[in-house]
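During the second year of the project, the team shifted from modelling isolated chains to modelling whole assemblies. The rationale, set out in the original proposal, was that interfaces cannot be judged from single-chain predictions alone. As a representative example for this report, we include one of the complexes processed in the last quarter. Its constituent sequences, exactly as entered into the pipeline, are reproduced here:
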Amino acid sequence: MQRTLKILRFNPETDRQPHWEEYAVEAEPTDRVLDLLHQVKWYQDGTLTFRRSCAHGVCGSDAMLINGRNRLACKIRVDQLGGKRITVAPLPGLPVMKDLVVDMEDFFAKFRSVQPYLQNEGMPPERERRQSPADRDRYEDTSRCILCAACTSSCPSFWAKPEYVGPAAIVNAHRFVFDTRDDHADERLEILADKDGVWRCRTIFNCTDACPRGIHITQAILEVTQEIRTADLS
Ligand code: FES
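Output from the structure prediction step:
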């Protein structure tokens, strides 16, 4: 069947503003939007620029705005999108470098700011640091983040205030704050107690809706907020 792929294009070397371009493509119902983008790039216009790597929803590199929602191009199928025209634009709220490629530097700087790694001050055990299944379950959900930025770039609080650390960073802080093997939860909570930390969340749930991994992001933010309220951070 035929589909029209309407893509928001921008070349910083020649364009002052982004503009829409349309491409007719042949699509199977089970094709992913990434397959259609490849069709355009390989057979119609090699200048089309977008990120992708694994093509299986694992690496998080091809999040984009597809028919008005942040999604992974490699996961969303043509038959999941109504209509004959599919619109594709870069993730909102992030600086566009070229076509569908956005600048992720600030996004990853915020991710790094919450110390997203295990810190344990004790002597290393002879074998692994053991943990009960119940303790492991405490952060199972937030451990599934693939850092695609679909959540942060769908958040109106982030659009209004780009200094906001954003849902993705809070999710990755949650991953370690609730890990019983980690000794630095309070440091992360102090970072997130900042004016541009968790308090900027307005529980709009856009982040939860956008997450391709189905992570309960708003709930995770509320759990971190509650932890800040009860922690002794003085
Ligand atoms: S290409 Fe890796 S998540 Fe889509």
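The radius of gyration is 20 Å. DSSP finds eight helices and seven strands in the chain.
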